[in-house]
Amino acid sequence: MERIVIVEDDVFLREELQNILEKEGYSVECISSFDTPVKDIISASPSLILLDLNLPNLSGFDICRALKTKGIGPILVLTSRNQLSDELHALDLGADDYLTKPCHPKRLIARVQKLLHLYKNMHVLLDAGDFQIDELANILYVGKDSISLSENEGIIIKALVKASPSVVKKEELFHLLWGSSDYVDENILQVNMTRLRKTLDGVGLSNRIKTIRGVGYQLIGDDSL
Amino acid sequence: MERIVIVEDDVFLREELQNILEKEGYSVECISSFDTPVKDIISASPSLILLDLNLPNLSGFDICRALKTKGIGPILVLTSRNQLSDELHALDLGADDYLTKPCHPKRLIARVQKLLHLYKNMHVLLDAGDFQIDELANILYVGKDSISLSENEGIIIKALVKASPSVVKKEELFHLLWGSSDYVDENILQVNMTRLRKTLDGVGLSNRIKTIRGVGYQLIGDDSL
DNA sequence: ACTAACCTTACAACAACTGTAAGTGTTAAT
DNA sequence: ATTAACACTTACAGTTGTTGTAAGGTTAGT
Question: What SS3 state is found at A46?
Fold first, then answer.
């Protein structure tokens, strides 16, 4: 069963929303104290967050930003702010949809259903700009192409993408790949880097890994060459 | 570069939309003859479809339904119909968003960007109800778990899910797996079914494949037992 | 009870992945 | 220019997962 978290300080509206959603069969949890809303939302393991913008302590915008940073979603903003600039700001921060009050229950339900269905039937990829990585499957998508990476290749490229544009130190890669940098021959990392570079070369992503001697490796863009 | 296909019969509006989107850097293609709109849209390989509802020949609803059937998307409906029932109908047919005319260009751009970004960084899963399958990666997601399938396991379960609740004939599986049912020993399918059942069993999806003797196999739900 | 259809299990071959080892190439400091 | 340090490349052998084959066991229909 999917759990919807309602983040709304107006008690009357909060209960009305809860009724509407529970009547549709959803499990609902309401955030009713606003000391640590982000933490409370995350603790509730939401399938979807229904978020107001005018809240005590922390604005809905800040909550939206914080949740997106942690990969928590989807977020449907339901607010009395009907200015276009507010909508654009919320969408930019990562809100998945933006509805204004008053909102017909049927529209709300339809939008909630749409987002729940979408997120359930999609798998998030790690975005590297001009390519994407399926973190679980170790598949790299570039343009219309895709290529399967080995376990080690996947671990390395993910670390490089997530750290980009920073350098990933050799020690960190040792740790990610082999649990420690003690008792590990440096040569195995070098062999793995060669293998990853060769794989990337095969899909047109040549020279995208830069060696920082004595430090580690860095993912670079096309335009750094 | 992402290509947006505009499906709008009003010439003035069509060109205005094209200008707005091209100014944002998108490649735009307009459907300007409405004899075979679905075929034309698909031929254009769209990253996103901007779809009007009031069209000659075939209504936008029908086009939406046809595109979703073929897995083409995302679809952003932009229409003068501002009745709630129209919105609900379109969303139900699979539209990803619904905007009414007149629409501020900034809102349109924000919504377009949101959908393009979402679909680029997500990978669509094949929905089987209580589990989902990543078709390219051959990964099965059930609840919070996931399991990697072998190539053959993936081919079989995908066929079963797509045909469900119908039976998939043995001949069809022979064809999908080995290109033909000629010169193929029946035992290899049986061994593969055993392996798939064993894999499903490992993630709690036991007894979900029913044998139809002399015919083929069928995916069944939890409640068919 | 009989038998065709199907399931299960074990084995061997193959491909991909991985770590090791050695030779080669590059870089930076002197 | 020299050379030590660092990094890259290549080949090999061992491991693992996948796959088809073969044989014994089970099931369902007559």
Answer: coil
Q: Is A121 on the interface with B (CB under 8 A)?
A: yes
Residues of chain B in contact with residue A132, where contact means CB-CB under 8 angstroms, are: 120-121
A192 CB inside 7 Å of strand C: yes
Residues near B85 by beta carbon (within 8 Å), at least 6 away in sequence: none
Q: At what angle do helices A186-202 and A170-178 cross, to 10 degrees?
A: 90
The C-alpha of B113 sits at a distance from chain A's nearest C-alpha, in angstroms, of: 9
Task: Choose among A46, A58, A59, A68: nearest CA to A86.
Answer: A59
Higher pLDDT, B151 or B73: B151
Structure tokens at B27: 């490649």
Whether A217 contacts A168, CB under 8 Å: yes
pLDDT above 70 coverage of chain B, percent: 98
Q: For residue A17, is it left (φ>0), alpha (ψ between -120 and 50) or beta?
A: alpha
Cα distances (Å, whole numbers) of residue A144 to A131, A147, A148, A203: 10, 10, 14, 10
Q: What angle do CA B168, B160, A113 make, to 5 degrees?
A: 135
Query: Token pair for residue A101?
Result: 């009050």
CA B177/CA B180 separation, integer angstroms: 8
Q: Judge whether B168 and B159 are in contact, CB under 8 Å.
A: yes
Task: Please tell me the distance from the alpha carbon of residue B17 to that of residue B104, in angstroms, as a whole number.
Answer: 11
Q: Tell me, what amino acid is at B115?
A: L
A129 touching B (Cβ < 8 Å)? no
Burial B53-75 (b: 16+ CB within 10 A, else e): bebeeeebbebbbbbbeeebbbb
CB atoms within 10 A of CB B174: 19
Give B220 CA → D18 C1' in Å: 27
- Phi then psi for residue B77, to 5 deg, are -85, 130
Partner B contacted by A127 (CB < 8 A): yes
Tens of pLDDT along A161-187?
Answer: 999 889 999 999 999 999 887 777 889
Q: CA B205 – C1' D15 distance (Å)?
A: 30
Q: Which two tokens stand for residue A170?
A: 């050799």
Contact B107 A121 (CB under 8 A): no
ipTM: 0.82
**Best of B104, B107, B121 to mutate (most A CBs within 10 Å, chain A):** B121
Instruction: Name the residue with tokens 């469900």.
Output: B164
pLDDT-derived band at A222, boundaries 50, 70, 90: low
In DSSP terms, B76 is beta-bridged to B50, B97
- DSSP E strand boundaries for A180-224: 209-212, 216-219
